[in-house]
Write a structure and sequence with these properties.
Elements (H helix, E strand, L loop, with lengths): L13 H4 L2 H13 L8 H12 L4 E2 L2 E2 L6 H6 L13
Antiparallel strand pairs: 1-2
């Protein structure tokens, strides 16, 4: 029996792409960040909303820099790597 491969999900975050194991790992890393390094919940949600609209998002990964956007957006001092930063 052939294993079915998943197609990359354009404009999807990890939590939406079906990559549950990887999503769990990223969430654990976010939880381990010191509170002083985390973006505020509203800021995090806003950043993810902007990433969802970006043409460079592919299965939770930013094609500009290769990061997992959920992790990058969680860090207070992170910035969007786009030529014209979205956040």
């Amino acid at each position: 029996m052939r294993e079915q491969t998943r197609k990359p999900c354009r404009l999807c975050l990890l939590q939406e792409s079906g990559e549950q194991e990887l999503y769990t790992i990223i969430q654990q890393r976010i939880a381990a960040l010191p509170a002083a390094q985390k973006a505020a919940p509203e800021q995090y949600a806003r950043r993810l909303s902007l990433c969802r609209e970006c043409e460079e998002l592919l299965s939770g990964v930013c094609r500009k820099c290769g990061c997992y956007v959920e992790l990058r957006a969680a860090k207070e001092t992170s910035a969007c790597p786009h030529e014209h930063p979205r956040w």
